[in-house]
Prior knowledge:
Elements: H1 4-20, H2 24-36, H3 40-59, E1 69-77, H4 85-102, E2 129-135, E3 140-147, H5 149-153, E4 157-162, H6 167-182, E5 192-198, H7 202-215, H8 225-239, E6 254-261, E7 269-276, E8 282-287, E9 293-296
Parallel strand pairs: 1-2, 5-6
Antiparallel strand pairs: 1-3, 3-8, 4-7, 5-7, 8-9
Amino acid sequence: MIKISVYEQAIFETIKRGATKLSEDVKEGFVKAIAKETSPSAKAGLEKTLQSMEMSTVRENPLCPDTGWPVFYFKVGNEAEIEGGLKELENATRRAVAKATELGYLRATMKHPLTGYDPGNNIGENIPNFTYKFVNGKDLEVTYVAKGGGSECFGGTRHRVVAFADGVEGIKKHVVDCFVASTRAGAICPPSVLGVGIGGTANVAANLAKEAACLRTVGSHHKDPQFRKIEEDLYKALNSLGIGIMGAGGDTSVLAVNVEYAYTHIAGICVATSSNCMVARRASTNITSDNQVIALKSPTWFEEEKGE
């Protein structure tokens, strides 16, 4: 059985790591962007940003002063025995978020949407937010994502319905239009990791876009060649716009474009975009049935189950 004391501490450590340590795939994305950048000012901006983030890792300081929404993805083994059940898993996560806030790894940014009341610990209605995926096995995988305010509040998430008659070109045009609108004045902190959700209802498309932005690694590709082609075409198109770091110009406007999809209704195709800021903060931990805690290099949310 996976003990409460084990998973609560593991969740806290996952939050701390996600808030302070740059993921290797994001770092590699920065290194490649720096190497190909032709604008001296943009190159300097990328270099100084990477240097700042590396210093945050060493000092265990937040990678960005906006520590965003605390969002959690739990990949739960169907045979997993979790002490206290899923209800206690959520309670333990709330306690871990409050502890991380008290210790300064998270800023108290979560407020009541109407009154502005600030509980001071990032705990409130539907926050932190939880998403579950159930798989074979006995393990529990925890992924913490900091979804930044800029990448959400300033138009980083958008959607519309594209007619079937407009096809792939209509989908790509909508994504480009959304990205251009979102990045005005560097509002979503480009170069971004852009997630695109295609199909399903509006909320399904938006959730897929967020998962693609936050849980897919920089440099990964969709296994379906049709969607990989869309990813590649959009990556080239968006980087040709010259938006660059913080909208100030440059060769790299996106570090990656990740697409996920759902089947849709014949009436039309919901298309959603979700931007993740250049820091792209996340961390994942696997907890085994015998209470071993293993820090993962990246989430396995989209990986197929073994044996399938």
